[in-house]
C-alpha cells in the first residue's frame, strides 16, 4: 500500500470540510456534472488559498473533466497535468491515478493515443499496488480497463475491445456508470460484427442504466440504440432515439459535434445526401474547433463517404487523405484502412485507380475483416474487385467479389445489397447471366421489403438508390437477351416503386421530449448511425436544439418556410407506415398493350451509360438501343431550359431571336437522339416513361402526336382506372401576385357548367385543399417554386403563403384531373434507382389520373390562351394528352411567349 497524507485532516477543521467536498466531486461528475461546476471552481480556489494539495488535485481534475465535456480537451489536458504534478509532489498516489485516468481520456480525444495508453497503464499500476479493496481506488480498475477497451476499439482491435468490455460488464455493480459505458460500447462492437440481436440487448441495458443514474450518461445509449434500429429497419424508432440523444446532449451541455456526426451518418444511410453533407461539415467544423482530433478523423471519413456518394470524388479524396494521415499519427489502423478505402473509391470513380490502389485496398480489406469490421471489409473487397476489373486482373477481381459477397451476408440492408452487387459482378465476369439475374432479383426483393416499411414517399424513393446498380446489372442482361417482354418486365420492377404506397393524411406528428447527459469516462467510439424511441425516462417540456426540434403536425395543411419545412419533413419520418395502395404485380406485355388501346408505349432505361427503349405498339414490341447519349442529352436539356428562360422575358428582340435559334437547334437534336431512332408513326399517340434526366425533356415538343408521360407503365395503367364522376364542380384557383391569374380564372368560368372559383384574395391553403381534394377537374393558376434539392418542398403560392408538395401529398389531395398553370410545376426530380419526386408524381401516387404541368418558367399573361384552348377540349371530353396536343396546335409559335408555352407543357397520366 502507498500511504497518502494531507497537511491537516483534523475532523471538523476547514481542511476536513474542504476535503470532503473535493472527494465528493468524483461522484458528482458522474451524476450531475452541470451541478458540480460551481462546486469544482470553489474547491480549486479554496484549496489554493489553504494550500491543500489533495483538494486541489480533485478540484483541478473536476474542472478539467468539465472542460472536456465543453469540447475543450486541450484545456483539460493542461489542468490535469497540473493536478498530476500536485498529486505527485504531495505523495498522493491514488489521487494521481484518478488524474492520470482522466488525462488519458483527454489525450485520447486529442488523438494522442500513445500518451493516452501510457497514462492509463501508469494509473493501472498504481491501482494494482493498492489492491482491490482499497476505497481510494474503488471503481478505478474497471474504469481503466474500460478505457483500454476504448483504445483497442478506436484502433480497430475489436476482438480485444469486446473481451475487455465483457469483463468490465461482468465485474462492475449493476448500478455502476461503468456498466452503462461498457454495455453501450460492447453494443457498438457487436454492430460492427452485425450481431444485432445481442447488440440491442446491451444497448437497451445501457439505456435503462443511464435512466436510473441521472443526466450524465443518457445521450450515448440513445445514439447506440438508434444505430441498431436504423440498421434493422426500425426507422421511426431509431429517429426518435436520435431526437432524444440530441436533447440529452444539449441538456448536459455537451458539444454537438459528435451528435451531428451521428446524424450525418444516418442521413447517408437513408440517402438524404444533401442533409448528410451539411451535418457532416458542421460536425467536422465543431470537432476541429474543439481540438477533438480523435473523432475529427472519423468525421472526415464520414464526410468523404457522403461526398463520394454525392459525386464529388475530388473533395472526398481530400478529406480521406487528411483522415488517413491523422489515423496514422494516432496509430489507429482501423480508421486508417477506412480512409484508404474511400481514397481508392474516389480514384476509381475518376478512373485513376491502378495496381497500387488495388494492393492497398486488398490489405485494408484483410485487416478490416480480421478486426471484425465486416461491413467496411466487404466494401473494401468490392472496391478491390472493381479496380481489378479496370486493370484487367479478372481472376483477382473474381476473388475480391466473392469475398465481398461472403462478408456482406447478415449485414444491414445497404451492406447486403452491396454483397448482392459483388456476387452479380462475379457472375458477370463468369458470363453466367442466370446467376447475375438471380443475385439482382434477390437484392431487389430485399430492398422492396425495406422500402415498404418506410414512412414517406420521399424516403422510399431515396431508398431505391441502394438498388440502382442491381437494376442496371440486370437490365444489361435482359437487353442482351433481346426479349421486349423481359426488358419491359425488368424496367417495371425497378421503376417508380416508391409511388405505390401512400401514407394516410390524418396522423399527428410525434413530439419528442429531452433526456439529459454528460460524464467523465470513456464514451462511445467510432462513427455510428444515431437515431430515437420515446422512453419513460425522457422528461417533457424541454426544448431540443434548434436544428432538431420536431414539429407537431396538425390535420390541416401547414404552411412552412425553409426552417419549418425541415422540421415538418423530419416529423413525417417519425410516422409508422400504413400502405394505401397494395403492391401490384409487374404488368406483362399483353396487359400493357391492351390498356394502351392503340397508343404506343415508349419506356426508357439505362445501364452502363447506355440508354435503351422498349417500344410497345398495336402490332408488336421491340427493343431499341439508343447508345451512350445520356450526357449529350443532358447538355442539350440544360441549354434548352436556359434558352426558354431567356425567351420568357427577353432583353431585346435580338436576344429573343438568338434564344429561339438555340432552342430550335436543341429540340432538333433531342428529336434525333431520342425519338427518331424509335421509328414511330409521326402522328401516333405516345405514352412515354422517361428515366433519369429525361424526366426534364419537353416530350410534347419532340413528337408530332399527342404525348402522355408517366413514372412507370404500371402507374399509367392505374390512372386508367379512375372514372369520371358526375356532379362534381370544376375548381379554379388564382394565386396572388400573378399577372393574368384572375383574368385566367374568369375566362375559364364560362367553359364549364359548374364552377367553384377561388380568386387571388380567397385562395387560402385550407380552402384550396378542401375544394380540390376530390374535384373532377382542378386548375391552379399560381406562382410555382422548384426545389431541385428537395422536390417534396417545391411549392405553389396561395393567398396565405406557399403550400408544399409534401403538404398536399399528406393532405390526400387527389382531384381526378389537375391543370397546373404555374412555373416548374411539372419539373419532377429524378433519383437513383429509377425514382422521381415532385408535384406531378405526388399527385399521381395519390390517385390523380391526369395532370398538365410545365417543366420550366412560363409567361404569366400569354399562357391564358393556351389554357383556354386546353379547357375547351377538356370540356368536350378529350383526355389531357389529346386536349393539350390540340391546344398547342393553336399557339402562335412565332412569338417568344407562344413558343415557350408550346414547348414546356406536358400531359401526365391517362385521364
From TrEMBL:
Gene3D superfamilies assigned: Tetratricopeptide repeat domain
All residue ranges annotated as the CHAT domain in the record: 670-895
Region of interest called Disordered, as start-end residue ranges on this chain: 512-547
Alphabetical list of SUPFAM superfamilies matching this protein: TPR-like
Pfam families, per database record: CHAT
Protein name, per record: CHAT domain-containing protein
Organism: Cellulomonas xiejunii
